[in-house]
Amino acid sequence: MFKINYKLCHSTQNQQRKQEKDPKEYEISSVNQHYLDNKDLKIEILGRGFTWLDTGTHDSLLEASNFIKTVEKHSGYKVACLEEIAFKMKFINVKKLKELTKPFGDSSYGKYLKSIINENH
Questions:
Q1: N or C end of the chain, less CB within 10 A?
Q2: Which of 72, 81, 96 is nearest to 120 (CA)?
């Protein structure tokens, strides 16, 4: 699995608009090729536990959704829980996490965030 760091630049957008039927949509492979050609593509090999989920079709979106549901159900962890990530990375403290948890009430997401708070008391 590879993580590709890139920034969209004006010239890439203009190049893509000429190539694409929909000027708002860019093929990631064309963007990657642009940065590769300009020797500005940085690649990092990611270890186990990373998965690329293509969601470009209805079927692949459903597949990705089912995969995330399965991972969350069996691991007990939420995938990409931004509040949890911010807390674990020490961008926010427990007080801020409690504040961010309130709007979710007793939903499953709210209960998950409360469990993180309880683990850290």
A1: C
A2: 96
Half-sphere exposure of 120 (CA within 13 A, CB side): 15
The pTM (predicted TM-score) of the whole model is: 0.64
Tens-digit pLDDT profile for residues 36-48: 999 998 888 888 8
Angle (deg, nearest 10), helices 108-119 and 94-101? 160
Task: Name which of 86, 80, 77, 82 is nearest 115 in CA terms.
Answer: 77
The torsion region of residue 90 among left (phi > 0), alpha (psi -120 to 50) and beta comes to: left
Tell me the C-alpha to C-alpha distance, in Å, between residue 109 and each of 47, 80, 92, 101, 113. 28, 12, 18, 9, 6
Angle at which helix 28-37 crosses helix 10-19, to 10 degrees, equals 130
Q: What is the mean pLDDT of residues 56-74?
A: 95
Q: Quick check: 111 pLDDT over 90?
A: yes
Rounded to the nearest 10°, the torsion over CA 15, 17, 19, 22 is: 160
